[in-house]
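Task: sequence in, structure out. Protein: OmpA family protein.
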Amino acid sequence: MAKSGQKYPLANCLVLVGALLSSQAANAFSCDAGPYVIFFDQNSASIGDEAREILAYAKDAAQVCKYSKVRIEGHSDTAETVEMSDKRVDRVRDLFRELGFAEEMTHAVSYGPNRLRKSTGPDVPMRENRRVEITFGPWEVPAD
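Result:
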């Protein structure tokens, strides 16, 4: 029985708050399919702390929103080669596999310096262009 002045017993309030928080957590992602963007240092495919946070958020969004497929697009700046974007894609794809995405549910492609986020001349290092973009969806994964 509730104490005088209390409208609901404490146990019921905790259950209601827990349900509300779970509902808010599901809505917090707004089921955003992306793209989630991870930036890289020059000539590097290393995943730093900031990138790990983005990957963790993307993984949580995929679980909450029931996304089953992931597209991973690698990019480099004009001072790098397409092979560098290949390494970045491979690293991120490996992390998604570790997170439970089956190989057949991932599609990865490297564009090298062909799809710049910020236009530059040749041989210009630009952080905004050294990236991997992650997008989730129910779309068909193309056969390689």
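The chain has a mean pLDDT of 80.
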